Hints:
It is a single chain. The protein has a single domain (11-71), classed as Ubiquitin-like (UB roll). It has one helix and four strands, in the order βββαβ. Strands 1, 2, 3 and 4 form a four-stranded mixed sheet that branches. 21% of the residues lie in helices and 43% in strands. By secondary structure, it is α+β, with helices and mostly antiparallel strands. The relative contact order is 0.26. The mean pLDDT is 96.
Amino acid sequence: MTCVICKQGKTAPGTTRMAVERGATVLVVRGVPAQVCDNCGEAYLSADAVDRLQEMLAVAARGGVQVEVREYMAA
């Protein structure tokens, strides 16, 4: 697909790093699967990836995590 941000690049499968936050918890997740623009680097996540990030964040928040870095792991 053509990138909606830069309108120049094309997206291709890749990975990205995402920081997500809930209350006092900040979770940085590396290796998140995404469609990544070859021009500007904008990353587009699938609904499944977003759902998984939300699950990971919920687990971290319940565990009392304040700041943590994790690798993405599919459910």
